[in-house]
# Entry
Amino acid sequence: TIGSDGVQVWRTNGEEPQINEWTLVVDRGFGNPANQFTLGIGVFKDHLYVSATKPLPLAWFIPMGCDIIRIDKYDNWQLLVGGIPSMPLFSSDERRSLSGLGAGFNNPFNVYGWQIQEFQGKLLISTFDDSSNMEVILTTLLANREALEQAFDPAIINIIIQVYRCVVEILRAIRYPLGFDLYVSEDGIHFRPVFLNGLGNPNNYGGRILYVDSNNQLYIGTANPFQGCEVWQTSSIPCNRRVSSCPNHYYSLWQVEQVLSDKQDILNEYMPGIIQFIQKKVSNETPV
# Structure
């Protein structure tokens, strides 16, 4: 379930669900109430894996990485990906993940753990990588700057524009691989990336579907609002494949988080109103 106090996980008391026959297994967003949505769930080696996403739509505009837990048959749960929130909204969480990976697999742009699937004895987790939206947000702010400065404090609008301009410049400088990520684990604890670039298409920002058919073929369906979805098929996951990225890739991502966290109060206060303002403006300008 979802809620302002954090996502919850419940189980039935019997094999079939019945009214008032449920047991609460996990609450308060896996120990971080900022985890308010769950968008991925799957089974691997007798554990249930569940992902959690920060408040939406705010997490699209202020990227905050997903957390992932696993639950055993005795209702014990462990944090796999996540831990100390880099930009805590509601609480301070001092846990360390079992994998050693921070939120979003050490990447704030991995806002969702979108699909969780077992394939050929391995655990696969695909993400929604929000990085491609940073330039969209910047372009939208610049296109509506005059109207925004009439509705809000011009100094605030300038600060927000500079934040997104800085983020976009960092992503370009490090040649950040736009597009969703796919991670694999042999033991359900330690992960490595299969790819970080949306299957070679930067507009594939989400791994929306991971489906295994009766012939043990894996199908990957992408979320791509710019060109439309793609469907890929494979019979295997490469072993120990090296995924190239800029040497300063993860260090630079922490720079991005610092830029966002420095102006977190302003972004938290004004972005919801700015989003509503632009949505209303676009709606009024759209012919019926």
In short: Residues 40-131+180-245 form one domain. The chain has two domains: 40-131+180-245, 132-175+248-288. The first strand starts at residue 9 and ends at 12.
